[in-house]
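Usage

Read records sequentially. Each one opens with the input sequence:
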Amino acid sequence: MHQLKEPHATVDDLMALPDDAKAELIHGRIYMMAPAAATHSFTTSELFLKIRTHLSDRKGKGPSDTDSWVILSEAWTDYDQDNSFVHDLAGFSRKSLPKLPERGPIMVKPLWVCEILSPSNWMNDTQRKRVVLEKHGVPYYWLVDPIRKNIQVFELKNPGEHYQIIQAAEDANGVTALPPFGDLELDLMKIFDY
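and closes with the structure output:
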């Protein structure tokens, strides 16, 4: 008996989609993405604003790694021919990413990725992408759940290993600092509550 093979998509197939299509390539399969729910958008915006403001405020205040970070929302990032993701938030080394591409994905590995969970994309964010990020050595991975109002922080301690959960926080914790932004105090009640 012959099994039909599912077509194997590549980054080229993703690039051929209309400009207004929001899709990701995961393990050679294109996943169309639904529009974000309002809670997803609010949480993403709050985190982006807090992190960017914090990094900007640190400039000129003694030794800091402020210049090493570029924080982007909707960061379309290419990992290999089979995997190209649109991260809700991602942090890159400014040294590795001195200029943003005008078209197409970022071809540099991020130092930090943050995915805001939604029911329609839960499996991709918690399982499928995680394996690729581990393989490509992304040091920090946050999973943020705006429904359960919590954040899980994963760290890749050594190349070739799996992520380890190093911190979990929820809105009841109030103000907390999360790696890799250890000196940034996030008020989780404000992040999650509109």
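Summary fields computed downstream for this record:
- The chain has one domain: 37-192.
- The domain at 37-192 is CATH 3.90.1570.10 (tt1808, chain A).
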